[in-house]
Amino acid sequence: MKKETQYSFGGKVYRQGALVMGQVKQLLTVLDGAGLTDIADPFAIIRDLGDRMPRALAVVLTPEGVSPRDKDIETLAKELEFAMTFDDVLRVIDDFFGCNDLLSLLARFKEIAGRVQEQAKAQMRGNGSIGSSPSWPGATSPSATTSSGDTP
Predict the structure, then answer these.
(1) H/E segment holding residue 96
(2) Inter-axis angle of helices 42-49 and 53-60, to 10 degrees?
(3) What is the pLDDT of residues 62-108, one digit of tens each?
(4) Which long-range contacts (CB under 8 A, 24 or more apart) does 45-48 make?
(5) Nearest Cα to Cα of residue 77 among 32, 120, 33, 30
(6) Which of 37, 64, 76, 85 has a beta carbon 3.0–4.6 Å from 58's, enabling a disulfide?
């Protein structure tokens, strides 16, 4: 897996590396509602992202000398939209998957989620929470009480 890749677009130098948590949050916001159909196909990614593509590129690319935290995504997206060629976009997409091993990360996340789910099930079985009566004293239901009205 690549650590970092550098590019030059429109006379400026940009870098791309493994996403930090803030970039993941930004990217999720950009991708919300995009309906990605096939992340293995760069053309499908470009088609599915549509107008979101410049902002997605602005999230993953960081100008040299700037922290990912300090960059202005909207301004950077406008710059990149007319500084990058189609070939540049394809190269950045390809490098993105080299810098961010998404399949490995998804597999790890699934493994962690499975362990958490098993721990929760074990804890619930240990507490008797599933299929057992509550631990507090029960009240008599209204249908089990005698009438409080007049008696003959």
Answers:
(1) helix 86-99
(2) 110
(3) 999 999 999 999 999 999 999 999 999 999 998 998 888 766 666 67
(4) 45/93, 46/89, 46/93
(5) 30
(6) 76
